[in-house]
Amino acid sequence: MQRIIHTILYxxxxxxxxxxxxxxxxxxxxxxxxATTDSTLDIYPDYKDATIPPNIAPLNxxxxxxxxxxxxxxTGEDGQEIVEGSIEGGKFIIDADEWxxxxxxxxxxxxxxTVYAKQEGTWIKFAPFKMHVANExxxxxxxxxxxxxxxxxxxxxxxxxxxxxxxxxxxxxxNNRNFDMAHNHCINCHNFQNYDTDRMxxxxxxEHGGTIFYDHGNIKKMNMRxxxxxxxxxxxxxxxxxxxxxxSSNLTGQAFHMTxxxxxxxxxxxxxLVFYDADKGSLTNIxxxxxxxxxxxxxxxxxxxxxxxxxHFEPLRNAADSTRSDSVLRYYDKVFYDxxxxxxxxxxxxxxxxxxxxxxxxxxxxxxxPRISPDGRYLLFTMGGYGQFHIWHKDSDLWxxxxxxxxxxxxxxxxxxxxxxxxxxxxxxxxxxxxxRREDKNFSRPAIAYFDKDGKPHKAxxxxxxxxxxxxxxxxxxxxxxLTKSAVKTTPEQLKKVVYDDASAGKVSYxxxxxx
Amino acid sequence: MSKHNxxxxxxxxxxxxxxxxxxxxxxxxxxxxxxxQWRSSWIYAILFLVFTLALWISYGDVFYRTEQxxxxxxxxxxxxxxxxxxxxxxxxxxxxxxxxxxxxxxxCALLSLFIMTTAWMVNLVLxxxxxxxxxxxxILSIGYIAWLAWAGFNIYFKEEPSTCMxxxxxxxMCVTPVAxxxxxxxxxxxxxxxxxxxxxxxxxxxxxIVVSMLYFKQWQxxxxxxxxSLGLALTLWCILREACVPHTPLxxxxxxxxxxxxxxxxxxxxxxxxxxxxNVVLTSRMQNLMWxxxxxxxxxxGLQAREPSRSVAAYYAIALEMQDRLLEELFNxxxxxxxxxxNKNSQSDEYGLLQPDCDYTAGxxxxxxxxxxxxxxxxxxxxxxxxxxxxxxxxxxxKELARKYMKLISRNPLEQAFVKKYEPMITNRSLVDSDTExxxxxxxxxxxxxxxxxxxxxxxxxxxxxxxxxSDATLRTSLAATLYSKDLKQSLLRAYAFxxxxxxxxxxxxxxxxxxxxxxxxxRILESFPKVNDYVARSLQQFVRDITPxxxxxxxxxVKLKDRWLGSYYYYxxxxxxxxxxxxxxxxxxxxx
Lengths: 516, 593
Description:
The structure holds two protein chains of two kinds. Chain A is mainly beta.
């Protein structure tokens, strides 16, 4: 009996040891005598032929081809090689240090990736594919909001910052993780001044509503409503050097399609532009019109010009306040936004006459989110069939206007058949990060595309994650990607203290100015 | 002192006082005790079976529904919103335990095991005498049933679904170490370390730990299940140890009384649960049957209800719609909705129980998707909503989106059958067209492209009342909706459409026409509908005679006329569903987040 018991115990111990040993990763080797095939392996995410920054985190990927085992070789033009075996599910987790060295050694060149797959005991070598390494780095930090692509309701959401050189992501600010009706609030429209984090703002809606301003260590909450201003302040643009912010002030609603695949239509039924002096706490109307809806302001990099979108909508002329939204909703697919600009005199703080930059309405198209490249040459915007909330329009794409030559063209190499919208430049003007729904048409993911010095876009790739399956399993959308050179300098706890302190919130003062 | 050894012994001599041998004495005593005494631990075994069956029979459908209202996956990125909540990791672990309810008999057995072993250990710790040992399992069982009764729909709706498993499991895990110490302290049984009493629990414990370490990748889950494995090992150890200790057996009569009384009480409690929470049971059952396409069984459930709730009525209507019998049998159940068994946080959202499925059945695939998504945003991922969204994505031909949801569903253990059925439909449209349920839903697809806001809420009713054009299938559904909402004017428009198509008017519509005619005699409606049945007209006269004595007492009308008139539109129109604002104006300020 004792012998039997001893035997059982030894078996259990052996099982435990074997299981532990098998969980350890083994060193991979290039298989010898692999049969060659001309077809390339399908991988996810699709990084084939993408141009990538030399400082990006490893582009871990997975093979979608069913096999017993996989090996991948990543080879630079200088001959340096990384060999990786796959882990469960055909995933390749590339060693971060080796990856970094490989990229740095191959700036301006290409890396060749060859994947081997083992099927029925035989190794197959797939045709290699390339990734091109650009010379220029991308800004190290990407900020965004994470929220479900929801309809009316929201629950847990927050602003987050991701270090693009590794996989670290940490919260800038989150609303309550456990639901609390008394403190439930939404956060949106985060913005930074000139790719830096010394100045930052975001809005808080519902409970503890207001706009949070972070300015060189000081955090302040302001109530941005004023009687002479149409509505709350929404889309911001920070002057590149001064503590001035131009906001759009929007009356916004949304409606839900019964059959249309776009599912949701977000409309403005009124919008104006306002100028906010953050040092003085004063708000001034820039453009306050009844029939034109002005939105999405954006400063030029030198601060001498303001770009914005404007839609002329005649039915609003005689519409009562209570019927404005119905008027727009009835003709929602006939609202077309053009891109306009006005010059700005810093001394007198006055704006010049509006000038047409891109006449989209003449093309029966609509533009949103104008963004000027840091060198001032290129105007990047989203164009879709109508309207202004293009994240819900499948036909929306990124377009460029060369402000020097006047050329207008889509970023075909970067665009996808699905939504491509809300974009940001990197501080060196070589990278664009934008929201794309190319994966599944519903959940937005940050896509990164290289924009070379000749004004040519390159194939975009999805934000890399440590687990290559991440984006397929993640149930939130990335909103409003914004690149910054440095990390956010405040903590969620510091921000929360100010958000919750309603008593100390400041109130803007309104200053009248001549309007159009 | 008598000297017995000098007596001569013969067959005729009375040996009453003759000495007896020791073996004779013992065997006689044993014979007596085997007839009269039972091991008290048999009570636990019997009550375990009784409680398992009682739960399974009374609430098996609800438990299965609860498992379907949960979601668990090994992908931490998907589970993060749950783990970030207070006790998030505990809930996460609980959802794995809840998977046992995928087969309700197994889940109920597991629940019963937790309860009975907890009761056994409580008796051990408190040194309850054998004659009272049935009390603890009875109290715990009835207490658990009472909690189920109190929870109502919130056992799964808008609350953490794993709570029903976590409560008994955590109670068991808390009592186990106390029982272990108590047993160790009391009984000085010296057994060799390598005896079965010690080795079996060690092996079970080690195996459990190894499986936890191998299967779960997160240390929090590994820790929880390691603790559970240790708890299991300690429980086994206590049981085996106590088995070695002599206990006073129970006399047969006492054993029977205890067992039968406890079993009776537990069974009665389970029956009371099923009786009180009938709407919870029926709703769950009908929701389960819907996924299997068992329409007739759903209809039967609806007809069983004593006082159908809104959700039972809704699923009854769904089943009729899927069999094209909506207009013929809709009013065969009473429409007098009781207060739903919902807590105050979810009381205002009774439609949340049924709206996604009602919108779906009404052909409003976008709206059904919308409803499901909102629920997921607020309450977290739920299998039930993910599955509905996956089917909606298939119907909308959104392949990549459908694949995403299939992937999420496939990461939930035990859902391969669903994925196997629906995933091929993503790339093969003919499978969708040949599926009777999906084809029926597509036949109801709206013909007018409007926004949800144009229609009153809930959308499946508001749309069917407010639409101006649709398919033939929609015409029938739309007529049912207008009759349900007592909008006779809209019903009349649809009746004209029936006339134009040469369709026969269903009896409920004929009855509605007569009612309309009473209220609007100048319109002379009946001239347009000469085929309104004479029988229908006579029955209206009879109805008027029957209702007249109760003209001023609505409640009396409903009760007194029910037996004879339930099923007729007259009865429904005058006596039922009289709560105001069934179909609400859409006043939502749909703000953008």
